[in-house]
Amino acid sequence: MSNSLPVTEGTWRELYPFDSHFLDLGGIRYHYLDEGQGDPVVMVHGNPTWSFYYRNLAVELRSTHRVVVPDHVGCGLSDKPQHYRYRLANHIANLERLLVDELDLHNMTLVVHDWGGAIGMGVAVKHPERIARMVVMNTAAFLLTKCPLRILICKVPFFGPFAIRACNAFAGGALWMASAHRDRLTRQVKSGYLAPYNNFANRIATLRFVQDIPLRPSHPTWSTIADVEKRLSTLDQKPMAIIWGERDFCFTTEFRDMWMRYFPRAQLHSFRDAGHYVLEDAYERIASVVQELLKKKG
Q1: CA–CA dist 24, 13 (Å, integer)
Q2: Which domain CATH number covers 190?
Q3: What is the pLDDT of residues 204-248, one digit of tens each?
Q4: Fewest C-beta in 10 Å: which of 92, 130, 150, 295?
């Protein structure tokens, strides 16, 4: 499929002033941003967002750092194959291929959100010598069997695929449920979040990510997250900022507290007035936190 989305005045493209790069993954185009020069800052998104989620932070940091922001296969401006194995292990392998094999990045500052936590930490625990610092925002990289009802019903056979792919209930619903300050989600911003997921076929990864949430040991992704969790201690001496929107219905403060148990040395910045899309709700406060962390020696 073509990833050519037209640029017209007043659209989300005005908010996304970046050049596109693509890595060939066996015939699948893996899209990423690669902006600026200096020590790399890698930003890893979740579901149902894409690199658009990090647009403001990428613009701010590219004047002083090299900013790399991928779109997972099936997301954003990456290809959306219909018969791909959308599992956490594959997303980790794709990110590793980009950061280690293709770009050979060192001294990375890793910024993660939502599924980006498990994916980004999946690479970090395999290559801790390449990681200098970490920023963790409303995410997990460890096993918890709790899942909110509104996510669970999206895992129900037949209903979940219909709601997510036919009705765009996940990406569309997130615009109502994931932000505590909906006034910040202008029509232009909303169009950016929805643009890559504009038809049934293009919503394949949005569904597969939900189906890949492991709630029992028999799930194929359970062991992948268990392995990442087991190796988080290899990163516990790295400077870290834990940034949390407390009004998140999915990644609740219980997840935040788990991160603090694994990384007791981390700086905690917890915002009572922010939701899951914490970068949308509290960007100005978060940008200064990230800038300060980047000054710390890795």
Answers
A1: 24
A2: 3.40.50.1820
A3: 999 999 999 999 999 999 999 999 999 999 999 999 999 999 999
A4: 295
Query: How far apart (Å, rounded) are the C-alpha atoms in residues 140 and 155?
Result: 19
Using alpha carbons, select from 195, 124, 209, 212 the residue that is nearest to residue 164.
209
Please check whether residue 4 lies inside any domain of the structure: no
pLDDT band at 83 (very low <50, low <70, confident <90, very high): very high
How distant is the alpha carbon of residue 31 from its chain centre? 14
Asked if residue 278 lies in contact with residue 138, where contact means CB atoms within 8 angstroms, the answer is yes
Number of domains observed in the structure of the chain? 1
- How many other CB atoms are there within 10 angstroms of residue 219's CB atom? 14
Domain limits for position 137: 12-294
The reported pTM is 0.95
Whether residue 5 lies inside any domain: the answer is: no
Inter-residue contact 164 to 207 (CB < 8 Å): yes
- pLDDT tens string 84-119: 999 999 999 999 999 999 999 999 999 999 999 999
